[in-house]
Amino acid sequence: MNVLILGSGGREHAFAWKIAQSKKLENLYIAPGNAGTAHCGTNVNISATDFDAVKNLVWEKGIDLVLVGPEDPLVKGIHDYFLADDVLKDIPVIGPKKDGAQLEGSKDFSKQFMIKHGVPTARYASFDKTNLEEGYKFLESLKPPFVLKADGLAAGKGVLILNDINEAKAELKAMISDAKFGAASAKVVIEEFLHGIELSVFVLTDGKSYKLLPSAKDYKRIGEGDTGLNTGGMGAVSPVPFADEAFLKKVEEKIVKPTIAGLNKEGIDYRGFIFIGLMNDNGEPSVIEYNCRMGDPETEVVIPRIKSDLLELLEAVGKQELDKTSFELDSRIATTVMMVAGGYPEEYEKGHEVSGLDQVKESIAFHAGTKQEGNKVLTNGGRLIAVTSFGYTIQEAVNKSFSSAEKITYTNKYYRRDIGKDLMKN
Ligand code: AMP
Ligand code: GLY
C-alpha cells in the first residue's frame, strides 16, 4: 500500500516509524513531515490544510490510505473533501469527518454530546454575547476554582482555570466581548472543577467496533513538579499505573461504549482515533475532553507499545472490519521525555544544529520541531525531540530516556527531569 501521513510533529514521526515496519507498506509519504520522518519515507513540503495540494499528491503518488495526524485538517473537513470528490472518494481517510471532529472542534458540542449520551462529565453551561449576564450568575453558583473554556479550537490555550470570582467574570467578558481567543471564544463553556488525577485513554474505531489502546499520562507544564506555563506536553508514560484493570473496565463501560453508541445514534460515521482526557476521582472516571486525533506526546508512548501491524489495523478501519483484526500489546512500560527549545512555550529561537542523535542507542528519538538542511538537523519549533524508551519499571524506562537526552545537544537545551516521578510511588 502507498500511505500518506499528514502532519509534522512527534506524533507523526511515531506513526511513520510504526507504519514503515508494516509488511503491507510499499511507499510512505509524510506531508510536511520533519527531519525524523524523512528516514521513514518521503517528506513532501505541502501543508496538511491545503486540501487541493493534498489531492494532487494523492493522485500523483497513487495513495491508498491517508492518516491525518492533527485536528486542524479534520475540523476543517478534509475527510468530507475526500468524500465529495470523485477521484478521492474511495480512498480511506483515517480521522473523522467534520461532524465527528466537532467532539474536539466545539467544546459546547462535546459537552452536549456527553450529557445526552450519559457519559460522566463536569456540570456545565454555555454562554455567548446574548447571555453574558447569566454567565456571571452561573459563575456565582459554582465553587472555585472556575473553569472557562473557549468553545472553538484555540491551539490548546483556550482553557482558563481561575480561583477568584471577579477575575473569572473579567475573563469571561474578555473571551466573549473582546475576542480573547478570536472567534473561538465567541461562545464559552463554564464548568465545574473536577478533582483527581488526569490520564488519557485512546480508542481506534471504524464506526462499528473499536479497540481500546493503551492509557497514557502526559506532563503538560513546562516546569518540574508541574509548575509554570502549559505546553503541548513535556513527556508521557504508558501504561498509567493507577489505571488498573478495574478502572479501565469502568472507563470502557461508562465512557467508551456510550461514546461509540452515541456517535451511532447521532448518525456520525466516525473512523479514526478518539482521545479521551479523563479525571480519575477516587476510582470514578469522568471526561474532561475529547480530541478527534491521537495525543502528542502520548502517541510516542502508545504506538511503540502496539505489537500488531498498525497499517493492517488502519486498513481495517477504512473497510469497517476492525472487529476481524487482532490487537497485541507490549507489556513493558514506555516513557517519553520531550526535549524543547530554551524559552518554550514563550519566545524561542530556531535554526540551531542538533547533534548526538547517532549516539542514541537504547531509546527512539522521535523528531517533532526539526528540519533537515543538507546533512544537518536543525531546530525548527518549540518541542524538538521526544525520547522514548522501554523498561519493566517506569524508573528503568525513564532513566534510559534521560541518558539518551544527555547525548543529544543543541543550544539552550531543556527537558523535564521528573517525568514519571509522581507515578513511581504507586
Ligand atoms: P482541555 O483543553 O479541555 O483538556 O483542558 C486543559 C486542561 O485544563 C486539562 O488537561 C485539565 O488539566 C484542565 N481542566 C479542564 N477542565 C477541567 C475541569 N473541569 N476540572 C479540572 N481541570 C480541568
Ligand atoms: N498532549 C495533549 C494533546 O495532544 O492534546
What report would you give on this structure?
The protein is an alpha+beta fold. Among the domains are: 94 residues, Rossmann fold, CATH 3.40.50.20; 69 residues, Dna Ligase, domain 1 (2-Layer Sandwich). Helices cover 28% and strands 28% of the residues. The chain is built from twelve helices and 23 strands. Strands 10, 11, 14, 15, 16, 17, 19, 22 and 23 form a nine-stranded antiparallel beta sheet that branches. Helix 5 crosses helix 6 and helix 7 runs antiparallel to helix 8. The longest helix is centred in the middle third of the chain and has 21 residues. The model has no long low-confidence stretch (mean pLDDT 95). Bound molecules: adenosine monophosphate (AMP) and glycine (GLY). The site of adenosine monophosphate (AMP) has 11 residues, from strand 7 and strand 16.
For the structure shown, list the relevant keywords:
globular; about 425 residues; binds glycine; Rossmann fold; alpha+beta; 12 helices; 23 strands; Dna Ligase, domain 1; binds adenosine monophosphate; five-stranded parallel beta sheet
Q: Which cofactor or ligand species appear?
A: adenosine monophosphate, glycine
Strand content: 25-35%
CATH class of one domain: Alpha Beta
Radius of gyration: 21 Å
CATH architecture of one domain: 3-Layer(aba) Sandwich
In total, the number of strands is: 23
**Structural class by SSE content:** alpha+beta
Low-confidence stretches: none
Helix content bin: 25-40%
Biggest beta-sheet profile: 9 strands, antiparallel
What gap, in angstroms, lies between the N and C termini? 43 Å
Task: Note the quaternary state here.
Answer: single chain
Helices, by number, come to 12
CATH topology of one domain: the name is Rossmann fold
Shape: globular
Average of the residue pLDDT scores: 95
